[in-house]
Amino acid sequence: MIVLGIESSCDETGLALYEPGKGLLAHALHSQVALHAEYGGVVPELASRDHIRRALPLLQQALTQAGIAPAAIDAVAFTQGPGLAGALLVGASIGCSLALALDKPVIGIHHLEAHLLSPLLSANPPAFPFVALLVSGGHTQLMRVDGVGEYTLLGDTLDDAAGEAFDKSAKLLGLGYPGGPEVSKLADSGDPTVHHLPRPMLHSKDLNFSFSGLKTAVLTVVRKQGETLAPQQKADIARGFVESIVEVLVAKSMAALKQTGLRRLVVSGGVGANRQLRAALDAAAAKRRCQVFYPEMEFCTDNGAMIAFAGAMRLQKYPDAARHDYAFDIKPRWPLDMVCGA
Ligand code: KG4
Ligand code: ZN
Q1: How far apart (Å, rounded) are the C-alpha atoms in residues 84 and 79?
Q2: How far is 323 from 100, CA to CA, in rounded Å?
């Protein structure tokens, strides 16, 4: 069964072909980072238009890479939500039209479920059950994962997501978009002893997060330093921010492992690409004789491979989830617990 995956929920257009047993046959990706950079964030209308421009050439590229004709596609999976409505509509309409033209089933995929399962695409995949730390631009969640479609929410952010905190802090420091990688790079040359920023909810008894106070702390420090920040001052603030957010993410992840009694932690979403976070999680998990799994770097941020993979996993486990009606709808807001089961 060859599944075509289409991702278009935000600022990446991704198309990929996945075949269970064989693996990833092809994946093609276009990032809109350059398009949105001058605005300091994603402009939804520009994102939708660019998805329209890129999707079919990327599909052709993926088919050529896999060496197959469109008729060889057995099912089409597309990101149905959550995400930007206009951007989601592009992937949904292309996915459903293609499936209709090819007379093949179609399935709408939850973007976060795809992130959650993306580490299973790697050469050394984790076995179920595991604890998942999902850290993206829009979400920060800890989840217990017992299998495909079997998710229990353990903790969530009460306000900003981890990636959002990175992006907002980057803006306050006058860095480019997306902010996460920039803050991370700058933090490397910063002094960790200069700024001790708050660790929000570090000692709360639950597994929830809150990052809006951390962003305000960055703002307060930036204001205190005066008009223009010297490069070293910026680096010190970036370092203080990274130290704080990493400590909270690691502490809550370890607490989730303890609470569930599980020994495997799976990290996914864009912030999962962060080197400081990876190093700290690896060290903390090793102390507890736990293992940490990450998606390949290229599959941390949005891509079509994770959608094709999630589609294939769902269709194998829940064959009734395959639709033949092609009346597409999108779910810009869609809680992950709604996708438990078929
Ligand atoms: O998963 P993703 O590509 O999109 C969403 O589904 O949100 O995540 C994007 C987020 C952005 O906030 C970006 O700044 C952050 O992931 N990010 C990083 C790094 N790479 C991407 N944050 C920290 N360090 C990184 N290396
Ligand atoms: Zn994402």
Answers
A1: 11
A2: 10
CB 99 within 8 A of CB 326: yes
- What is the full DSSP assignment across 80-140? EESS-HHHHHHHHHHHHHHHHHHT--EEEEEHHHHHHHGGGGSSSPPPSSEEEEEE-SS-E
- Tell me the ligand closest to 176's alpha carbon: 1
Query: Strand pairing partners for 5?
Result: 16, 77
Distance from the first to the final alpha carbon of the chain = 19
Distance between CA atoms of residues 229 and 110, nearest Å: 41
- The per-residue pLDDT for range 94-144, each reduced to its tens digit, is 999 999 999 999 999 999 999 999 999 999 999 999 999 999 999 999 999
- Rama region for 71: left / alpha / beta (φ>0; ψ in -120 to 50; rest): alpha
Is there an atom of ligand 1 within 6 Å of 81 CB? Answer: no
Q: Whose CA is nearest to atom 7 of ligand 1?
A: 137
In tens, the pLDDT along 47-91 reads: 999 999 999 999 999 999 999 999 999 999 999 999 999 999 999
Question: What domains sit in the chain, N to C, each tagged with a CATH number?
Answer: 3-117+299-338 (3.30.420.40), 127-294 (3.30.420.40)
What residues are paired with 85 via a beta bridge?
none
What is the value of pTM for the model shown?
0.95
Burial 301-340 (b: 16+ CB within 10 A, else e): bbbbbbbbbbbbbbbeeeeebbbeebebebbeebebeebe
241 CA to middle of ligand 1, Å?
A: 15
Dihedral sign, CA of 183, 185, 187, 190?
negative
CA torsion sign, 171 to 176 to 178 to 184?
A: negative
The amino acid at 250? V
Yes or no: say if 294 and 119 are a contact pair by the CB < 8 Å rule. Answer: yes
Q: Cβ(179) to ligand 1 under 6 A?
A: yes
DSSP secondary-structure letter at 47? H
Tell which residue, 305, 297, 326, has the closest CA to residue 98: 326
